[in-house]
Amino acid sequence: MAHEYTNEIKCPYCDYEFSDSWEFNDSDECSEVDCPECGKEFALTVNIKIDYSTEKISCKDQTPPIPHEWDEPTFHDIDQEVIDRWNKEHWNAISDREPYRMWTRECKNCDVSEFKRVELGGDCPFIDEEK
Predict the structure, then answer these.
(1) Which of 20-24, 103-107, 117-121 has the lowest mean pLDDT?
(2) Does residue 68 sit within a domain?
(3) How many C-beta atoms lie closer than 10 Å to residue 80's C-beta?
(4) What is the DSSP letter of 58?
(5) Of 33, 52, 61, 78, which has the fewest beta carbons less than 10 angstroms from its beta carbon?
(6) Neighbouring-strand partners of residue 33
(7) CA atoms of 125 and 119, how far apart (whole Å)
(8) Is 130 within the bounds of a domain?
């Protein structure tokens, strides 16, 4: 029985699993291996997979640092109805809060977000700040 794409080398004759498979990963060619359990020889191909991950770097951590480029601010009104619903769903988690407006903005370059809380119906607090 053949074994394909396993995490450890397995003998195709007796299913013996090698505990030191990592020692065989220095070759991308087919090689012949002797099974220490049954003694039979079998062909081994090491399959190497490479993955890449990327993520944005904060504007302040760029070299040199760059200013944030903000999206248009948005707001969410947290009125008494919302507070009552949250309290019911989350066991009075915010019972001490009065209704308010939450303004948010996000940087287009680095995904940094800013949040500012103002009185319900209050104007955008980001207007006077440099964009």
Answers:
(1) 20-24
(2) yes
(3) 11
(4) P
(5) 52
(6) 42
(7) 11
(8) no
Alpha carbon 6 to chain centroid, angstroms: 26
Range of the domain at 85: 59-119
Q: Which residues contact 121 (CB under 8 A, 6 or more apart)?
A: 77, 101
Structure tokens at 28: 């991308």
User: Model confidence over 61-72: pLDDT tens digits?
Assistant: 999 999 999 999
Residues found in the chain: 131
Specify burial of residue 19 (Cβ count, 10 A radius: 0-12, 13-18, 19+): exposed
What total number of domains does the chain contain? 2
Which tokens go with 96? 């001490």
Instruction: Give this prediction's pTM.
Output: 0.53
Using CA atoms, how far apart are residues 49 and 6, in angstroms rounded to an integer?
Answer: 12
| Domain contains 127 | no
- Look at residue 126 and give its three-state secondary structure: coil
Asked if 70 and 106 touch (Cβ cutoff 8 Å), the reply is: yes
